[in-house]
Every structure is written in structure tokens, then in C-alpha cells.
Amino acid sequence: MAGLLDAIEIETATNPGASVIWLHGLGADGNDFAPIVPALRLPQTPVRFVFPHAPVQPVTINGGMRMRAWYDIRDGAIRREDEDGVRASQTLIEALIERERKRGTAADRLVLAGFSQGGAIALQTGLRHGEQLAGIMALSTYLPIADSFAAEAAAANRGAPIFMAHGSYDPVIPLARAQESRTLLQSLGYAVEWREYPMPHSVCPDEVADIGAWLRKVLGAGN
Fold first, then answer.
1. Which of 19, 20, 59, 93 could disulfide-link to 105, CB 3.0 to 4.6 Å?
2. Active-site residue, 148 included
3. Catalytic one among 89, 116, 140, 181?
């Protein structure tokens, strides 16, 4: 197997016993969400944030330009899915989860999070992971490879907290696509905490506050 992905790491206090692996969107890198950590207000729980850099690869919808991407995007509606790419990134993230376990973070103290493409990989990986995670956070995204999801979902994460948030005016991943994923998950018995914000394909201050509150809840910290 290839080596672990390079990543930016931020620890909110010494000896963290909880971890958040947070995946960026297409064309960004681990620096994209690193500045958000102080705004999440998590001083009571020592947490290690891991912001990995996706592999560099050509992206069809961008004329084959090479950029950091978790998988290829072949059409604007993201319907011709790059299943091989999605599964390859799932394997890379599983390796990061395993490293956190070896560093002392139990699965039920680990949150898998992501924005856009990164959120798709968070859902792909987290809901198939063999041990229950503390939670899965999927921002401005959708459930990839949905047709095979029910057959592949891990029983261990049927009860994992899921936070999904989306912008009402998202032109990149339409709100309806995210709602379709939420409905599928709910139909299979998953408890999805859903938020909508009047924004495009981005993150807003109200969302950051809600993310912080959710993380404090699932990681057992006080407000």
C-alpha cells in the first residue's frame, strides 16, 4: 500500500484523546479548513485535527488539469461517478483512521468530516467502517456510489451521528442532490442531523457555530 497521505495537524491541547480527520474539496488542500479550528470553541476536549492533502490527479471536468482531488469528476451533474477513484480514496482514509487508532484514539472518539468531494469520501468511508465512529460530518456534499450503499454499509455505524449541511444556493452540488442523499440515509434508518444555510458552495459563520456545537456533543465536551 502507498504511504500515508501528507497532512496538516493541529492539537487543541496536549495529549488529545479524540481526533477529527477533515477532508478538503476539489482543488484545495489541507490548509483550506485548518484556520477554522479556533472558531469551533473546543477548549475542554483535547482534539487532534488531521487535514490531509488529497492526491494530485487529472480532473476531466477541468480539462484534464492536474489538481488535488479525491476522485475524478466527469460531468457537471456528477452522475457518471468515478467509482474506482472513490474507493481508492476510501482506502487512503482508512489508513489515516488506523494511524489515529495506533496513536491512542479509539474509533468512538474519532470524527470523519469533509467538504464537497471530501464530504463524499467521509460518507463513503465512515459508513462502511467496521467500528462505530464518534460521528460523520458531510458539508455541501452527497452520498457517492449510492446504488451499492445499502449492501456495503457496516452495521457498526448504523447508529453513528451524522451531520449534513448544505447551502440553499449551491450551484456546484445542488441542494436537491444533498437532500436525495439525506432521504436515502433516513430511509435506511440513519439519524441525520440536517442544516440548510442561505449560501452558495461554501461555509458560513452560522454553520461554523453549528459544527462546533455538534462536535462538542459527539465528542462529549461541554458547551
1. 19
2. no
3. 116
